[in-house]
Design brief:
- By secondary structure, this protein is mainly α.
- It has two domains: about 1-125, no CATH class; about 125-159, no CATH class.
- Helices cover about 50% and strands about 10% of the residues.
- It has helices at about 10-20, 35-40, 50-55, 65-75, 80-90, 95-100, 105-110, 130-135, 140-159; strands spanning about 1-5, 120-125.
- The protein has a two-stranded antiparallel sheet.
- The longest helix is centred in the last third of the chain and has 19 residues, at about 140-159.
- The relative contact order is 0.15.
């Protein structure tokens, strides 16, 4: 099954970084995202999807906390900081450099119109309850088959 939800608040990225990245757990205060993931034995988030080429990203690249803030909090390119610095170094003014990193309409422009920006769509892949029970009670082979099927379903949707 797949559920879809709108991400509309500018601080929604914190939910992903603080909760989802830790299986709905909490990251210790003051610890970097990368360090906390390593300590918890969790893999880092990676970029996936067919729009990556347009952003100059590669599937499988690690997503940083700052990139999450830029994309889901500011509607800006995940490498906006670097791009903006380069534009400023080339003589662009600050406003032009900032606008050049916007994905679609700048979020501030949307909010000035008293509209709510749609920052992203959250697709969550969930197995049916009976499949979760089968995974939990099954042997290693059964778990691997279920996990591969789940991964193939995600890859199919992302294509």
């Amino acid at each position: 099954m797949i559920s879809v939800a709108k991400v509309q608040t500018r601080n929604a990225w914190r939910y992903y970084v603080r909760g989802v990245a830790f299986g709905d757990g909490r990251r210790p205060v003051g610890q970097s995202l990368k360090g906390a993931l390593e300590k918890a034995g969790l893999p880092p988030g990676v970029w996936l999807g067919r729009g990556l080429d347009a952003l100059g990203l590669t599937a499988g690249q690690t997503v940083t906390e700052r990139q999450m803030e830029l994309v889901f909090g500011q509607l800006r390119h995940p490498d906006a900081d670097r791009m903006e610095r380069e534009l400023l170094d080339d003589g662009a003014d600050a406003e032009t450099a900032r606008l050049a990193t916007a994905l679609g309409q700048p979020v501030e422009e949307i909010e000035r119109r008293k509209a709510t920006p749609l920052l992203a769509l959250d697709f969550t892949f969930r197995a049916q309850a009976s499949l979760i029970v089968l995974w939990a009670l099954g042997d290693d082979h059964t778990r691997r088959v279920i996990e591969r099927a789940h991964e193939r379903a995600i890859a199919t949707v992302l294509r």
